[in-house]
Structures are given as structure tokens and as C-alpha cells.
Amino acid sequence: MPELPEVETIKLGLQKYLIGHRIEGVDVRLPKIVQGNVKDIEGGKVIAVRRFGKGLVIDLDNDYSIAIHIKLTGQLIYRGPNLRQKVKLSKKVGGSLPNKWTHVIFKLKSQPVRQAQDKKTKVKSATQNSKATDAYLYYNDIRQFGWIRIVESSKLKDLSFFRDLGPEPPVTMSIGVQPLTLELFKKIVNSLNTAIKPLLMDQKRIGGIGNIYANDALFDAEIDPGRKAKSLSDAEIKKLYNSILKVLKIGLREEGASELSFVNALGEEGSYQNHFLVYGREGQKCKRCNGIIKKIILGGRGTYFCPNCQK
Ligand SMILES: [Zn+2]
Fold it and tell me: Which candidate, 275, 274, 280, 196, places its Cα nearest to that of 239?
């Protein structure tokens, strides 16, 4: 499932391309994906895009917001005049847009927006004309586990996903998100008798970490994923905390891992999958000690570790 770095990558793309666009209409092809009344967002202009854990929020100027969770295989792909010229469209998108996995289409009008941000990257932007132009945001989802909720902006916090979300590792600028400090992390780890890896992935305890980065952080910290959280020493907790920040930052730098269906807001792949420390490396040599990476199932999820150097 896309995690903090993947969803942040989508957020940054949507911030760049979507802000200033007005929603003309919404074509809902698979009703179960969307909750709320799409009429409430028609005519609204996108003023902000935010991320909370693995969730996204698109804020409009009419006091409504669109909350989105892409879950396992959701994609949000922008097409319009703001688009930079060369897009390396991933095969994971399914060839053309829209396609049979496109369940919701937001029809947009681009508005003349600030031009300054595009100058450096030599992007030719049609928004430099004063005329509004058609643009689209496609929501694709092969497995159909994702959701889109239309809600009054003031009531976002009432949605259980946002209400129950734990503090998140401070690796991005996220306004309104409780940062997971080392002190807070210690408190959470010390108080629980569960295995450390499922704890890292429990969104109600800590927001944003999923299977890939939990595996890699534990490898980096040389901690066995099955260790009881309570059994970790202060030094181990500190090391793990720093490893979490480290792997998430590498994930952000690489613009996410394109496992399954993850692509950015243009439909391009990330490259963290080329930098996995331990995730997905069953039977291969440990990058640290040359031991052999083992795979077990822990908390129902594939768990990769080096029995030789993760204790
Ligand atoms: Zn090893």
C-alpha cells in the first residue's frame, strides 16, 4: 500500500498542477468509491492539497473538501494545460486515460495561476494565457479499495480516518498534523507488548508507515521485527526513530516506491523500489553482513529481515 512518501509525492504533484482549477463536474462511474454529494463541489476552486498519514485532502474555496484514501491501488492522475511536456507514463496506469479502471473523473477548468513556480523548470504552461482550459483529474483503482468522501471542510476531523490517525514522523511540512517526536515514540513503544513491526504500521498509533518502510527501518536499526515493543532499550528506540526518519526521507527523495500500482500525479513511477534495504529481498544477501534475508509472516504481512544482524 502506498505510504507516507508515496502519498506525499502525489500531494506535491496535485499542489503543483491542481491548485487554481475549478471543478466543472464529476463523472462517477463506480458509485461505491464516492460518498457525499458531488453537487457540493461543483463550481468550487481548488485552494489547497493536504496530506494526513496516507490520506489526502483537496480543499475548495466553497468550504467543501474532497478527502481521498487511495488504499492499495488507487491512482490520481492529472491531465491538462499545466502539464509539463515530457511525461513518462507508467504501464501501471493501463495505457490510455480514462480506461476501464477509471472510476471517477473530475472535470476541471484551469484558471490563470501564478506563473513563477514554472519558470525555473522551463515548463510551458497554457495558464499563461488568460483563457480557462479543460483539465481532468482521473481516479483509477484496480482493486477498488480506495474511497473519496465529499465533506464540509470544517467536518473533516469528524471522519474516523482523520480523527483516529496517530502522530506522524516529521519528515515533511504538514500543517495540522501532530508530529511524532522521539519522546512520543518512546512513550508509544514502551507502553505496548505487541511486536514492534505491526506497531509501526498501526495508523492509530503512528500515521504514515506501512509495510515497506517498516521493514526497511527495522533493518536499518538492526532490530528483529518480531521483538516485543516493550523490550526495546532507550538506545534501540532512538536508533529506530532515526531509521524511520531516514528511510522515509529516502522514499521521499526517490518519489515513492512503484510497487503494485503506485504512480505520481502525472502517471509516472517512483524509484524507491531500487533502494529497498530488505523489503522484497527474500533469499538475497544482506547488504550489511552478507547473511541471507528471510521472509516470515508477522501480523498477517510479509516481513523481511536478516536473522544474523537484526536482533
Ligand atoms: Zn545482516
Answer: 196
